[in-house]
Structures are given as structure tokens and as C-alpha cells.
């Protein structure tokens, strides 16, 4: 896997990343750090990636478990260290799963499997952060 990141100029703290799959992502810093708030912060991208990785696992596992899932939303709330490096210290992933006749045990199993076995992003973040999750089922 490869990613190229380029600084977008001397008048700010904006960067453009080109992923190995050919996609472009812009990032920017907070105004107090010299950025212009024109794009997500790099740490926000890291948190979003963890949510996407885990949601991917959960949806795939539930589909393979023949659950009639129609939506999967993940809200991540994170705390960071106060001193540099300001790593994530706590992250909660709240899964809102919508579907018809969902089996709560299968949903819980899918989230646990992502959390304990499959999600590479959360596995890395767990090296510095206490990870937790919660589940909300929404019936159709």
C-alpha cells in the first residue's frame, strides 16, 4: 500500500494525498495552527478511517449472516492526550444498525468480530487508545 502526500503551498497548512488506488484527499489544519479549515484534519481522517473499516466489517458479516440490514451508521467519539504526541486515548464506536427482523445476537457478534479480529485500523488505534463500542438497533 502506498500514499503520496504533498503540501499545497507556503501560505497555509493544507495537504493533498493521493492514495495507492488513485483517489485524492485534501487535508487542512486548524486556523490556530496555520491552516484555513478548508478540509478535514489528518487526525479526523484517521478516526474516519477507523469508522469506515469497522463498518465495512460489520456490514459484510451481517450480510453473510443473512441479516436484512438496510443501514449501518457509526458515530465515533474520541479523546486525545493533552501532551504531544496527542494520540487518541479513548474511542467509542456507536453502531446504529437498521434492518428488518435483526437478530441482536448476530449484530453483537458482527461488531465483536470487527472489534476483536478483523478491523486493522481499530487494532492499531487500540495500541494507544481504550476502545469501546455500543449498538443501537433500529427496526424497519
Automatic annotation (TrEMBL):
One Pfam family it belongs to: OsmC
Classification via SUPFAM superfamilies: OsmC-like
Domain of life where this protein originates: Bacteria
Protein name: Redox protein
Taxonomic source organism: Polynucleobacter sphagniphilus
Organism placement in taxonomy: Bacteria, Pseudomonadati, Pseudomonadota, Betaproteobacteria, Burkholderiales
Amino acid at each position: 500500500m502506498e500514499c503520496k502526500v504533498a503540501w499545497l503551498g507556503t501560505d497555509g497548512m493544507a495537504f493533498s494525498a493521493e492514495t495507492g488506488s488513485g483517489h485524492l484527499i485534501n487535508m487542512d489544519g486548524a486556523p490556530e495552527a496555520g491552516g484555513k479549515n478548508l478540509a478535514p484534519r489528518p487526525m479526523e481522517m484517521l478516526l474516519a478511517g477507523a469508522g469506515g473499516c469497522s463498518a465495512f466489517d460489520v456490514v459484510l458479516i451481517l450480510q453473510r449472516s443473512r441479516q436484512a440490514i438496510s443501514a449501518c451508521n457509526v458515530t465515533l467519539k474520541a479523546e486525545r492526550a493533552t501532551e504531544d504526541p496527542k494520540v487518541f486515548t479513548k474511542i467509542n464506536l456507536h453502531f446504529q444498525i437498521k434492518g428488518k427482523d435483526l437478530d441482536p445476537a448476530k449484530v453483537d457478534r458482527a461488531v465483536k468480530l470487527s472489534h476483536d479480529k478483523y478491523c486493522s485500523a481499530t487494532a492499531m488505534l487500540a495500541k494507544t487508545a481504550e476502545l469501546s463500542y455500543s449498538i443501537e438497533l433500529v427496526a424497519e
